[in-house]
Write a structure and sequence with these properties.
By secondary structure, the protein is mainly alpha-helical. The longest helix is centred in the C-terminal third of the chain and has 31 residues.
Length: about 110
């Protein structure tokens, strides 16, 4: 396995973690591989000495606090773009009365039934 394959597989295993943590850990392992290669070991041998991708991913996940993982999972992924906010504001004279009418109809049906 070469460095690029190692990094892409490890990145895939750590996909749910905070991006900064993943990048820090990837840089650490890349530096470790480079150090071993400077000592005269081949790239494949250096990667095999470090361990398997599954073992490394399990170790990294175990070291990261659960609160960071939960924050990453619950963080909103998409922010509203400016044009979306402008369209909501400009379209409010149309959609606001329709929404209010729908709520009144639902409330009336609830009271009658």
């Amino acid at each position: 396995m070469n460095k690029q394959t190692f990094v892409s597989e490890l990145r895939g295993k750590l996909s749910g973690l905070p991006k900064k943590e993943v990048e820090d850990r990837l840089n650490f392992y890349l530096e470790m591989i480079d150090d071993r290669m400077e000592d005269g070991i081949t790239e494949e041998a250096a990667i095999s000495e470090i361990g398997s991708v599954e073992e490394i991913a399990a170790q990294i996940i175990a070291e990261i606090p659960l609160t960071k993982i939960v924050k990453e999972k619950t963080k909103p992924r998409k922010k509203r773009r400016t044009w979306e906010i402008v369209l909501l504001a400009v379209g409010s004279p149309l959609w606001a009365p329709l929404l209010l009418a729908a709520i009144i109809v639902i409330l009336a049906l609830y009271i009658v039934l």
